[in-house]
Amino acid sequence: MKIINENCLEILNPQAFPRFEKQIALTFLDPPFNQGKEYDFFEDALPQSEYWEMMQVVCGRIHQLTSEGGAIYFMQREKNTEFVLRCLRETGWTLQNLIVWTKRTSAVPGTTRFGKQYQIIAFATKGKRPRVFNRLRIDLPLRPEHKYPRDAGVFVTDVWDDIRELTSGYFAGDEALRLENGERAHKQQAPIALLLRIILSSTRVGDVVLDPFAGTGTTLIVAKQLGRDGVGIEVDPKNTKLIQARIAAERVSDAIEPLREYYRYTPNLAALWPSPEIELVSKTAGKQLALLDG
Ligand SMILES: C[S@@+](CC[C@H](N)C(=O)[O-])C[C@H]1O[C@@H](n2cnc3c(N)ncnc32)[C@H](O)[C@@H]1O
Q1: How many separate domains does the chain show?
Q2: Is the confidence at residue 169, as pLDDT, over 70?
C-alpha cells in the first residue's frame, strides 16, 4: 500500500507515479464536489468550468496509467451527471453503467422539484470490454412485492439501495472516524460496503487499485483486506496521517468479513475474496485514533 501526501495532479503521470508490476486495474474517483465545503487544501468553490477542466485532466491522466480494460468509478452529485459523462467520454473512457446509489436519510423536500435522494457513480472502462467483471450475487432481503424468497440471492444491478451512507449524526455509527471530541474526522468518509462492492466487481487478487482523492483511505482499507495492492493520494497532511493510523489500527468496524455472508451466493467468491489468514483484532482501545488530534 502506498499513501502519498500530494496534489494528485503532481503524481498522476508516468514519471512521478509509483512503479508496480502491473498497471492500474481500478480507480475510485471521489473528489470534492465543488459545493463550497471547507477543505484546508482545496478550493471547493471553483468556477464550474475550472473545476471540470481539472477533472478532465485527472480522468485523462488516470486513463493513461490504467491497463487495457481497467475500470474507473467516478462518484458525483446527481446534478453533475452530464459533466461526469462528458468528462469520461472526452478522455477516452467507455461508459458501462450509471449506478444510482440511493441514500437512506430523508431527502430535503424540494419546493419546485422532487427532493434528491441519490448520488451517481459512473462506471467506465478503458476500451469497450472490462478486463474483469465479477458478477456479484447478494442475499437481498425479500421485498413486499416479491412472492418467493430467492434460493440463491440476486445479481447486483445498477441501483445500489442496500448500502447505507455514513451520515453526520447518530447513524454514522462506529465506522465513522472520530476525533477525541466525538466530531467526525472527515465528513466525506465513504462506507466500506461501497468500496467492497466496487473492488470485488472490477478487480482480481493482486491487482492495483488507485484512489487519487483518498480522504480517510476507505479504498485502501478495503483493498488491503481483499489482497489487492493500492495507491492513495491525499493532499491534506492531516488526512494522510489519518489514513496511516487507520490502516495500522485494523479497527473492527473497518472489517469487511461480516459482509461475506451477504455475498455468499456469488460464483467463485473464495477466489475473489480470499479468507483472512489472521483474524482482524482491533488494536485501538476505543473508537478514536490517538493520532488524529496529534
Ligand atoms: C470527498 S473526499 C474523499 C473521501 C474518501 N472517499 C473517503 O472514503 O474518505 C475528497 C478528498 O480529496 C482531497 N483532495 C482535494 N484535492 C486534492 C488533490 N488535488 N489531490 C489529492 N487529494 C485532494 C481532500 O482533502 C479530501 O480529503
Answers
A1: 1
A2: no
